[in-house]
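Task card 7
Instruction: Convert sequence to structure tokens.
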Amino acid sequence: MNKASYQVETLSVGQLGTNCYIVFDIKTKDAVIIDPGDDGNFIAEKILSFHIHPHAILVTHGHFDHILGVYELQEILHIPVYMNKNDDFLVQRMKESAQHFLHRTIVEQEPNITPISTKKLSFGTIDIDIIATPGHTPGGVSYVVKNADMVFTGDTLFAHGYIGRTDLSYSRPLDLADSIHTLFALPPFYILYPGHGDSSTIGDEKKLHEKGKEV
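Output:
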């Protein structure tokens, strides 16, 4: 199967404009949802409009702006949610953190998480490799769809030369640097889908990173 048979729909959700991705095989309609950061009902309506078959929700890391819509979506679709267990503490803080940053009462509940226990997941015809990319958070991961030449990086690596913040008490700058190095080892033509903002390619971001080191 080649990348032409996949489609990626990007939805900007929540007050922080998180990218929620709906990835599906055009032929079989197998699908996964990555980072439903808010508006679970809206995301579900979009999924229904595409007439696809969602198998799972994948979370890149545990920050509230990437998981606030997960419970609602999970209740509607009845599918599992996968996340690295090292970010469980962030899920437990979801309501408190969201209320602090969004200045509104949070009624959303914590999702039921299935810990990632393997380096690869398969959902119908969609095969996903899981790369540990900690630093921004302890349990950060990136999801690679090799057959489609694309990677979903959460808040580890963004377009235009930006990288994840590491000024949080649990963040580790050296771990983030290692994670970015790992991502740059992917083929340069891979499309990079970050947690916020525009998409890019691994090659373009690697060039910007190397240029920045020269300055």
